[in-house]
Design brief:
Elements lengths: L1 H15 L26 H10 L3 E4 L6 E9 L9 E4 L4 E6 L8 E7 L4 E2 L2 H4 L12 H12 L11 E12 L2 E10 L2 E12 L5 E10 L9 E2 L4 E15 L1
Antiparallel strand pairs: 1-4, 2-3, 2-12, 3-6, 4-5, 5-7, 7-8, 8-9, 9-10, 10-12, 11-12
């Protein structure tokens, strides 16, 4: 009887969770909700002022760029859950290259959590067996609700993720950037290695880093006392292009 009840509870949790077995939602994202404008000073105006002072401003192009976020299953029952991949098809980003001898460049990027695309089938299919499970629209919807909802990233309350450079060191094409990440009402700095090509007329910058959700005050998804969960650590990789 106890075993039966445990299985029933686990199945119910799987059906409701974003790591559920067959579920998923449409992967095209939801209409934007929450504040429509950035709470920070408008990035375009900032970079227009930089361009007017000299140097070159490059606007990053979301259509040519890739931003992927990977969340991994965890817990004793991880095998019945799923890994997830999120992408940011819409963002605002700029790179500034100052006149020679006047200092280092800088960059800013921001996107909305409620505009993330979750578990796009075509991309999952390219990632091998760890992401091979085909998720239904209901399961993707469950993932969205859990990841962005009140118990985790609280996207309605904290809609923006922002990345800004503090310092860039190195020589082309290899650089190290100290970046500040603003998310979930918290700001943290970390060092990110970058490969930068194409300057001064255009830019292609690629790199990867990892963060812990808990470092930003977010609570990673967990159910049944951690029997099934999402790993605290999140892996992010990107290739950003602009001209």
């Amino acid at each position: 009887m106890r075993t039966t009840l445990s299985l029933v509870a686990l199945c119910a949790a799987l059906a409701a969770s974003g790591c559920s077995g067959t579920g998923g939602s449409n992967s095209t994202g939801h209409p934007t909700t929450g504040p429509a404008a950035s709470a920070e000073p408008n990035l375009l105006r900032q970079y227009e002022a930089l361009a007017a002072a000299g140097g070159k401003v490059i606007r990053l192009d979301p259509a040519e760029s890739i931003v992927r976020i990977y969340a991994f299953r965890a817990g004793p029952a991880a095998k019945v859950g799923h890994n997830h991949v999120l992408s940011a098809p819409r963002f605002v980003g700029f790179y500034y290259s100052p006149p020679p001898g006047t200092g280092s460049g800088r960059f800013d990027l921001e996107f909305r959590l409620d505009e993330l695309v979750i578990d796009e089938p075509g991309y999952r299919a390219t990632l091998g067996t760890a992401f091979a499970t085909k998720l239904s629209p209901e399961a993707v919807e469950g993932t969205r609700d859990h990841m962005l909802g009140e118990d985790n990233l609280q996207a309605d309350r904290y809609p923006f993720v922002r990345v800004k450079s503090i310092e860039i060191l190195g020589e082309s094409p290899k650089f190290m950037a100290t970046v500040e990440i603003s998310m979930h009402g918290q700001r943290k700095q970390l060092l990110v290695p970058l490969t930068v090509e194409g300057l001064p007329d255009r830019i292609t910058v690629s790199g990867a880093f990892a963060i812990r959700q808990s470092d930003f005050g977010a609570k990673p998804y967990s159910v049944l006392g951690g029997l099934m969960a999402v790993l605290d650590e999140v892996f992010i990789e990107f290739t950003l292009k602009g001209k």
